[in-house]
Design the sequence.
């Protein structure tokens, strides 16, 4: 196996892992793994600041990439993709919650059915002003 | 969303031109029975037409709920004047969200047996709704979808026709249903179906989401029964000016894939 394909496999695996994250839930374990990963990244960053050429260039050459800067670029592209996916997913979840909240408010402020159409009278009387419901209809 | 059960799906009954005659007796029956029907109308900036739409609809179906989706004109007031119950979204959420809100409101009425989804812009005919409700009342099916393509009353341009055909082909492929028109706003749903629906697609993709959820429903282990009925969509100059652009087809597809 050539050294060039090692980096390809790693990048493909990382991309697939991000795609998998899109489907997997975000439980306690996922959150813990994310925090540990962030910690490791910070450690690596500090180390690479102290000795940039050795860290990145030697790692890059070990993986079959010419320069350390190239390796960082590849890593960034994959990380950015992951960020986009995670943000999209979170945004969707937030939209669902926000919709539920807005719907609850809308329904609570609407004229209740029993006022709009009293059971003994089939036709609706003149429109009345909206009154908040006393009890939750759910 | 789709189920993978091996048994073949029963071909839904497709009724053509059912119940379009209106005798006096039949009309009386409709008025008497219509208290178990709720018209759910998503409403967004339709102040020009909503009053007439609600008045016309209420002549046959007195229970109308308009879900005002944060209109910036006085649509809500016009609808209320015409006798509809108005539920106001505090912010604009989208048509799918408005439909779900309307369903939730209609479900608070214990007398409700059927929900009709009806557009606010005057494209739909009340006579079509009557025929569709009659069809559900017969008890053979739980859902009736309106379709523009079962007869040739609806005049749509060739390109619009093509886009709608492609949309329905995609929906049938992904949901395992067999429909001729998936993006039609006119539907009649039985209470049990309304109770189980949970629309989360706030924007345009809700039409396909409704079809997908209905297609996946089981009642006592049985595949849900549904039918299509021919409806006549009036493309007035007003609705044409407001109508969805063809670009929206791209958005619908994107929202379906990245849900």
Sequence:
């Amino acid at each position: 196996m050539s050294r060039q394909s090692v980096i390809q496999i790693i990048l493909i695996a990382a991309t697939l892992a991000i795609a998998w994250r899109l489907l997997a839930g975000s439980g306690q374990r996922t959150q813990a793994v994310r925090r540990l990963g962030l910690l490791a990244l910070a450690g690596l960053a500090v180390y690479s600041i102290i000795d940039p050429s050795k860290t990145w260039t030697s790692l890059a050459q070990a993986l079959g990439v010419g320069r350390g800067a190239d390796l960082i670029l590849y890593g960034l592209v994959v990380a950015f993709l992951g960020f986009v996916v995670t943000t999209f997913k979170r945004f969707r979840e937030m939209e669902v919650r926000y919709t539920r909240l807005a719907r609850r408010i809308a329904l609570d402020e609407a004229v209740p059915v029993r006022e709009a159409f009293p059971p003994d009278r089939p036709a609706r009387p003149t429109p009345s002003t909206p009154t908040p419901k006393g009890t939750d209809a759910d | 969303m789709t189920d993978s059960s091996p048994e073949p799906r029963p071909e839904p009954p497709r009724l053509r031109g059912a119940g379009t005659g209106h005798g006096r007796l039949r009309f009386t029956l409709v008025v008497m029975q219509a208290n178990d029907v709720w018209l759910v109308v998503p409403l967004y900036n339709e102040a020009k037409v909503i009053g007439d739409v609600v008045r016309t609809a209420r002549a046959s179906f007195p229970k109308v709920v308009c879900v005002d989706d944060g209109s910036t004109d006085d649509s809500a007031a016009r609808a209320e004047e015409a006798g509809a119950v108005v539920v106001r979204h505090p912010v604009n959420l989208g048509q799918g969200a408005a439909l779900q809100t309307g369903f939730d409101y209609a479900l608070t009425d214990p007398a409700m047996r059927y929900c009709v989804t009806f557009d606010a812009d005057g494209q739909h005919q009340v006579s079509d709704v009557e025929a569709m409700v009659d069809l559900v009342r017969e008890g053979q099916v739980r859902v009736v979808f309106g379709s523009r393509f079962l007869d040739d009353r609806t005049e749509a341009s060739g390109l619009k026709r093509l886009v709608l055909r492609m949309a329905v082909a995609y929906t049938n492929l992904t949901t395992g249903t067999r429909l001729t028109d998936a993006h039609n706003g006119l539907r009649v749903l039985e209470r049990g179906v309304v109770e189980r629906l949970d629309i989360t697609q706030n924007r345009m993709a809700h039409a396909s989401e409704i079809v997908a959820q209905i297609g996946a429903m089981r009642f006592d282990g049985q595949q849900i029964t549904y039918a299509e009925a021919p409806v006549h969509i009036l493309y007035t100059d007003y609705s044409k000016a407001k109508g969805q652009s063809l670009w929206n087809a791209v958005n619908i597809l994107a929202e379906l894939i990245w849900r």
Remarks:
- Helices of chain A lie at 3-23, 28-50, 52-63, 68-109, 113-116.
- Residues 3-116 of chain A form one domain.
